[in-house]
Design goal:
mainly alpha; two-stranded antiparallel sheet; 34% helix
C-alpha cells in the first residue's frame, strides 16, 4: 500500500493538467521537456535544445521527445526570414494540443526578433578596428612606369651537365648473344635431369640456352649448372607447373665463377701418403670377396678370420700349421 503527502508550494510553482503529465504517448523525457518549458517566466527565449541541455536530456532522447511533442501538437515550429535577410526558427510550446492552423495564427501575432538582438556577446560580431595609416593602392597593381632596358631577373645559372657514364652491360643485354652448341645440348638434356623439368616449352629453349651460355662463358662447368638447378627444385613434393619460368628464374642470377682455390673436394689432387689410421693396417692375403684390412700384431699376412676358419675344400689345419701362423 502506498501513501502520498502533498504540501502546496507558496511560490514558484506551475499548474499542469493531469492529462499532460499522464499522457500515454509521451515519454518521461518529453513530459519533462514540456513542463520545464511551460514553467519558464513570460518573455523567456530559451530554445528547446537549451532546455534539454539544462535538464540533462541526451541528444537521442531529445530528438525522440521533440518528435513526440510535435506529433501530439504541443510543439510547433516554422522558419521565416526576418529583417536584414536573416532566417530564423520560431518555436511555439503549448500546454494543450494545437492544430497547425491554430499554431500559425498564434505565431503570426508574435514579433520576429533579429538574430543580432538575441545573440550572445560571444557570438555577436566585434566592432572593426581600422588599419593604421591612410588607404593606399596595392603595391603589385599596374605595370612598371619605367622600362629598365635590361634583364633584371635573378635566375640561377643552369648547372653544368656532365657526360653520362656508359651503362654497364646488364644480364638482359648479354642474353642477345647467340647461344653455343654446348648450351643447346645442356638445355636439351634438362628434361632427363628431373621429372619436374619434362614439360619445358620448346619456345623457351633459345632463351634458356642464352642464359646457360652466360654461365659457361663465366667459367661455370656444366656439372655446376645442373647442381644449381637441382638445388632450386622443390624437395617437398610440390609440383612444378611452369618449369620454363622456374629455370629462367634460377639461371637469371648467376653467382661468381669458382676460382682455382674453390675447386670441389672430389677434383682436388689427393696425397699418395695414407693417413695415420690407414698406415697401421694391412690387406689380408686370404680368400675374400672384397679387400679386407686388418691390424697385424706381427708379421702375419692373414686376418684373424682366415686364421681361425679352414680354407675351402680342405680338412682341418694341423697343429703345426696353426702354430706357424700363430
Amino acid at each position: 500500500m502506498i501513501y502520498r503527502h502533498h504540501i502546496a508550494p507558496p511560490r514558484a510553482f506551475s499548474q499542469f493538467s493531469h492529462d499532460l503529465i499522464r499522457h500515454p504517448r509521451l515519454s518521461s523525457d518529453a513530459v519533462r521537456l514540456l513542463t520545464w518549458q511551460l514553467s519558464l517566466p513570460d518573455g523567456a527565449r530559451e530554445s528547446l535544445s537549451r532546455t534539454a541541455e539544462r535538464a540533462r536530456i541526451g541528444a537521442c532522447a531529445f530528438t525522440r521527445a521533440k518528435r513526440q511533442l510535435k506529433e501530439e501538437g504541443f510543439v510547433h515550429e516554422r522558419r521565416l526570414q526576418g529583417p536584414g535577410g536573416h532566417w530564423g526558427t520560431q518555436q511555439l510550446v503549448s500546454n494543450v494540443p494545437l492544430s497547425a492552423a491554430e499554431a500559425a495564427k498564434i505565431l503570426a501575432r508574435m514579433p520576429v526578433h533579429s538574430p543580432s538582438v538575441d545573440a550572445s556577446p560571444q557570438v555577436a560580431p566585434s566592432p572593426r578596428i581600422p588599419a593604421v595609416g591612410a588607404p593606399a593602392p596595392r603595391p603589385t597593381d599596374g605595370h612598371p612606369r619605367k622600362n629598365p632596358g635590361e634583364n633584371t631577373s635573378h635566375r640561377p645559372a643552369p648547372p653544368e651537365r656532365k657526360p653520362d657514364p656508359e651503362p654497364e652491360p646488364t644480364p638482359e643485354a648479354t642474353e642477345t648473344t647467340e647461344p653455343s652448341e654446348a648450351a643447346h645440348a645442356l638445355v636439351a638434356a634438362l628434361p632427363h635431369l628431373s621429372p619436374d623439368l619434362r614439360r619445358i616449352p620448346r619456345g623457351m629453349h633459345d632463351e634458356l640456352a642464352r642464359l646457360v651460355s652466360r654461365w659457361l662463358a663465366a667459367g661455370h662447368a656444366p656439372t655446376a649448372i645442373r647442381t644449381h638447378i637441382l638445388r632450386g627444385l622443390p624437395d617437398d613434393g610440390t609440383p612444378v607447373h611452369r618449369p620454363g619460368g622456374l629455370l629462367r628464374y634460377l639461371l637469371r642470377d648467376m653467382p661468381p665463377a669458382p676460382g682455382p682455390d674453390t675447386a670441389p673436394a672430389a677434383q682436388r689432387p689427393t696425397s699418395a701418403r695414407p693417413t695415420s689410421r690407414l698406415a697401421s693396417l694391412r690387406e689380408c692375403e686370404g680368400d675374400h670377396v672384397q679387400a679386407t684390412l686388418f691390424r697385424p700384431t706381427g708379421d702375419e699376412t692373414l686376418c684373424r678370420r682366415c686364421l681361425t676358419s679352414p680354407p675351402p675344400h680342405a680338412g682341418p689345419p694341423s697343429i703345426d700349421a696353426r702354430t706357424h701362423h700363430r
